[in-house]
Automatic annotation (TrEMBL):
Record family assignment: Belongs to the ATP:guanido phosphotransferase family.
GO biological process: phosphocreatine biosynthetic process
Phosphagen kinase C-terminal domain segment(s): 122-359
Official protein name in the record: arginine kinase
A GO molecular function held by the record: ATP binding
Keyword Nucleotidyltransferase on entry: no
């Protein structure tokens, strides 16, 4: 089956728009060459997804950092001339012949991550999350309304079966949630934001809020996001800098969820996610941290880059720092184990705190 000429024309237009955009620094622009366009524009996955589904968010949002999403698992191989070099660039040089190591969440090793800030001088909170995709389902742009509802039903049944007292809680569907409750959950950093333009233009918000929701335990230290960017985001968070404790709870939660539904995993790319920046471990370990002295220095970003850390504002991705508080995390998620990804953040933050003390 060939790709609709109108779609091919849109791909060509997208390429031309990126070429003309001088201020665009996305990985999409960097790796969507004329050769890649010509190689990929007439290809379609079995579910009917084209290169347009991959690039449309980055074409619409020229301020994207990455700019691409995979509409289904097959897209990562079918459109590899675009994905492979982009993945290599994002994830510390993970080459096309490299393979994601076996999962190691760090069971039995969390004591190696003692509190980074026992006196509570720098770190407001610590969070570790991972993403999972339910086996047998594509990603957002290819999901039907029935798929969303069916997936929500499956994961809800996992939640009702959680026996562990600490992790027990309630599932709150977005559909029917009052605006006040929703806004409060977002402000407190528990719930995803609504209307992310990167996701919207990737066709990832269809049928919203159907099938979307959040599960959390009573203390709001264990959370699961359902059908936002990924099918599942499993999250452990708490105040302070005790990374080991946060990871310990995440491991417990992932094991429970994992024992009840199978997830999509690729031989080479590890756990599969909608965005290539999350492949492999899918682990983003982060702290909200105050570093008033060193963060004011012009080379702060360079120091973080060197430590393989990524800086964000505290109100999520693409937000600015507020009151000198930064969200700092590991950047790469692929080509290392889950424990190593957390350790990368741990070691980097430890170093930053030392620099702050000396400054
Ligand atoms: N597509 C957005 C960009 O390129 C987000 C990329 C990474 N973040 C994510 N949530 N997947 O800036």
């Amino acid at each position: 089956m060939s790709v609709d000429p109108a779609i091919v024309a849109k791909i060509d237009e997208g390429y031309a728009k990126l070429q003309g955009a001088k201020d665009c620094h996305s990985l999409l622009k960097k790796y969507l060459t004329k050769e890649v366009v010509d190689n990929c524009k007439n290809k379609k996955t079995k579910l009917g997804a084209s290169l347009l589904d991959v690039i449309q968010s980055g074409v619409a949002n020229l301020d994207s950092g990455v700019g691409v999403y995979a509409p289904d698992a097959e897209a990562y191989t079918l459109f590899k001339p675009l994905f492979d070099p982009l993945i290599q660039d994002y994830h510390n040089g993970f080459a096309p012949n490299q393979k994601q190591p076996a999962t190691d969440l760090g069971e039995g090793k969390t004591h190696l991550l003692p509190d980074l800030d026992p006196e509570g001088k720098y770190i407001n909170s610590t969070r570790v999350r991972c993403g999972r995709s339910l086996e047998g389902y594509p990603f957002n742009p290819c999901l039907t309304e029935a798929n969303y509802l069916e997936m929500e039903k499956k994961v809800k049944s996992i939640f009702t079966n959680i026996k562990d007292e600490e992790l027990q809680g309630t599932y709150y569907p977005l559909d029917g949630m009052t605006k006040e409750v929703q806004s409060q959950l977002i402000a407190d950093h528990f719930l995803f934001k609504e209307g992310d333009r990167f996701l919207q233009t990737a066709n990832a918000c269809r049928y919203w809020p159907k099938g979307r929701g959040i599960y959390h335990n009573k203390n709001k230290t264990f959370l699961v996001w359902v059908n936002e960017e990924d099918h599942l985001r499993i999250i452990s968070m708490q105040n302070g800098g005790n990374v080991g404790q946060v990871l310990e709870r995440l491991i417990k939660g992932v094991k429970i969820v994992q024992s009840q539904v199978p997830f999509s995993r690729d031989e080479r790319l590890g756990w599969l996610t909608f965005c290539p920046s999350n492949l492999g471990t899918t682990v983003r370990a982060s702290v909200h941290i105050r570093l008033p002295k060193i963060s004011a220095k012009p080379d702060f970003k360079k120091i973080c880059d060197g430590l393989k850390l990524q800086i964000r504002g505290i109100h999520g991705e693409h937000s600015e720092s507020v009151g000198g508080v930064y969200d700092i995390s590991n950047k790469a998620r692929l080509g290392l184990t889950e424990f190593e990804a957390v350790k990368q953040m741990y070691d980097g933050i430890k170093h930053l705190i030392e620099l702050e003390k000396k400054a």
